[in-house]
Amino acid sequence: MNTTQKRNNSEGAALAWTGRVFLALGGIAMLAPFFFMFVFATHTRADIFSVPPPLFFSDHFFENIQILMAKIPFWRNLGLSLYVGIMATGLTLLFCSMAGFAFVAYEFRFKKALFALVMATMLVPAFLGMIPTFMIMDGLGWINQPRALYLPAAAPAMGIFLMRQYISSAIPKDLYEAARMDGCSEWSVYWRVVVPLLGPAFGTLGLITFIASWNNFMGPLVVMRTPEMYTFPLALRSVQSPVDTEWGALMAGSAVAVIPLLIIFVFSSRRLIEGLTAGAVRG
Amino acid sequence: MAPYWLLSPFLLLFLVFGLFPIGFSFFLMFQAWDPVQGLSSMTYVGLENIAFAIEDPLVWLSLKNTLWLAIVSGLPQHLVAIPMAYFINEFLGKWRNAAMGAYFLPYITSTVAIAIMFSSLFSTDYGVVNVVLTHMSEWPLVGWLFPGANVDWLGQAETIKPVVAMVVFWRYVGFNVILYVAAMQGIPRDLYEAGRMDGASNLRLFWHITLPQLKPMMYFGTVLSVVGGLQLFEEPFILTGGRGGLEYSGMTTAMYMYRTAFEFNDFGLASAISWFLFIIIALLTWLTNRAFKDRTGAA
Amino acid sequence: MKALSKSFQRASYMSKRLVALSIALAAISAQAADVTVTVAAFPAVDEIVKAAALKWEQKNPGVKVKVISRAYADHHTAMTTSLATSSDLPDVMAIEYGYLGRFAQSGGLVNLSTLDARLDQQLKSLVPYAVAQGTFEGFGQVAIPTDIGPGALFYRKDLLDACGASEKDLISSWDGYLKTGDCIKAKTGAALMPHARDIKDIVIRAGVKAGEGVYFDANGKSVVGTAPRFQQAFELAKQVRERGLDAKINAWSNEWGEAFKRGTVASQMMGAWLGGHLANWLAPDTAGKWRSANLPNQAYASWGGTFYAVPQKAENKKEAWALIQYLTQDVAQQQAALEKFNAFPALVQAQEGASFNAPIAFLGGQSARAQWRESALKIVPTKVFKHDAVAEEILNAELDQVLLRGKSVAEALKDADRMITRRARR
Questions:
Q1: pTM of the full predicted structure?
Q2: Smallest Cα–Cα separation from A250: which of B114, C111, B221, B30?
Q3: Considering its fold, how many domains does chain A have in total?
């Protein structure tokens, strides 16, 4: 080992340890609010607002959940959030990959203008659309039905942006050109050649879509009109009174709401990394 | 060869649920409309809403707030995420996934939980943040850095903005860390090996190899941050209780728009403000595009 | 002939059977087709309605009640959306006072006198000022009050005693109130009130003539720059801040609750329902130390209040009205709401009786409800304007400038007047 390499090694070690310390501190900062959320979920309302606030777990978690279950159709709302999330994710993956493929692999009139239009809509804040969306849902007779939530969610501009980037960078043109020349139908080209290679992109977009759908409360507020049809975040909000909220129950509910997302993240994180890698680096 | 059937599901949904509401809000900009009076009560007022919006001091104040928040919360997200991603990628080995999970957690949380957690943490007399800070002000050596008395984080105009920026940063830095780790994993290792052979230090490796390779991901991440930052609504809304805080220092344009529509019941003005904001977002996105264009070519 | 009459007989026998059958079927289907009255509300009104619904359904077989509850702000947003598109409206809409002005003048609510010719009789049984709040020129009586929030001053007797001051000293005049506050601060360190804004809110509501609004005169013109009560309010608030008599705490925050627990705030002016909250969860351990008094300087004001209305597009208007009558006219029902949910009855008859007049332990055995009942009768109803929300917002912002940045009161009011006039023109 020459001196330069020796120097690099010890420098490397110092750097490694500094890095680990910062990461640990950062990790604590990231996790601390969560820790408190889970701690508060196990306390009664009176405890949460005392001084100093509770720092360790107590034993009121199930009590809190019971308070919550008495106020809202807990399992139904949770189930509905799950159903809407899965449908939204599935449809988004399908429709965005189809459309993304179309943008990459074909030429057609107004292609550029159309894509620019779709991108432009990402820039417009959403809630002015609340009332026109309500009008449309009402006209279609979709008020109070889950499809009013997952169908509009199935065409996000961000989704098509991601798919287009990924397909154009990670899937070699010759692959589907060859399939076409072999006489495959267009659907086969899409389904048999392109889709199997979309794993990482599906992982990424799927995760983002599911999270957005799960946490969304404005959409359900507009179209869901009876408590049985609320999604979980909306149901949690409905127990917030200006004067009399059961904070412990609310925190317990929020804690429960985070868990499915965590599970999904754990399962899809590897695909997510691959998806982002291929799409971005060669893009 | 018609790719139209590939496009049509997306296009149909987009036209009905994406474009129509936007078109409607564009149309609303030229109307005076109090929503509770029903659709038929709309009256055409031409450019009056736009003129009013341009003269409204709160519109300009909210724009200033929005820009400040977008920059102060957005820039650190990337400046911090890149080195962190580097550490996670290079030095953590099997702990990598756990670290990324920890950093991603804030992104997953719902706003209800965030509202309560942070209001409680930043509470003046009873929040953990103040308790820790005042304790630390009693340490030797570094004590002078910390405030000796409780800081009224959410009650003072000067401190609301930093608190909101901090919460936004907390929420999204993990997302960016993941983006960058992903990008770094795609950098061929031989580049680094070659660099080490030549005797380059870690810092030089980072500067000359890692960073240039990250440009595409930086472009993607920056666009998201610009658009997201200028549309900031949820975090300031919940931290200021929906009112914008003292002297409106925490009120972003999106929040002002929401209040104009649903609290002051003036949809025409709210539309005008939103299109005003749209122009600004479009402008800044275009600038971001230009800044990155020559380097990626894939804009 | 005989054959004809025979076939006629057979026919009439058949038709009689058919008629009997169809009557039977109609009766069965009428029973099977339950009418469902939908009620849209927010916590805790939703609980009140749910509790009442059981009894009412028993009294009215064939009618069911369905309560749709949302968070307070979400509920009013959803109602705004529904009114905007005249679609998906409930049969009974609960409206909080703050939103009443906007919703009532939308034209989307039914004039209740069209549903019941004897409405006037029934209105006489309710507290007058609240009834007036539900009446609007050109629209009639569109909303009926169910609970009210007569203003009271809740104060800590023990802190007052430390000063040797009496309740009279506290409430006889604003001057006296502030002076007593100085003394309390000197002797116990406690602030007089949570925020200087509280005193502004009361003073601007005092002296408003019937038919005028708080911020606007009968013609809708802003009076913020001209009516003396605004200047007085701002001056008093400024005094409070300068003398250190407020704790700079916002209502409903953690600090606010904690201040009550610890006794660092000596008084709070708010609706009478605050008493129940203090006792139940805000500061239960301070039981016995609080008292309720009328607002200082013979001011009478109300905080909030819940109303019921029936949208024009409701499907079951008759049943909706029947339910509203039960909720607002039934004494047992109103008193139950008071006991369980702190909803002070708008029904005058419910404001009597042994349990109503019983001493309240939390308030040291004071029969406070009688006091609140009396003060409710002295409240002058103010006219509600569409732009009240904006005006309040602008005025609060200007007050902040005065309190924090030392802006002069005159300039602040001038600016507020200018901005309110500008917004009100729309």
A1: 0.81
A2: B114
A3: 2
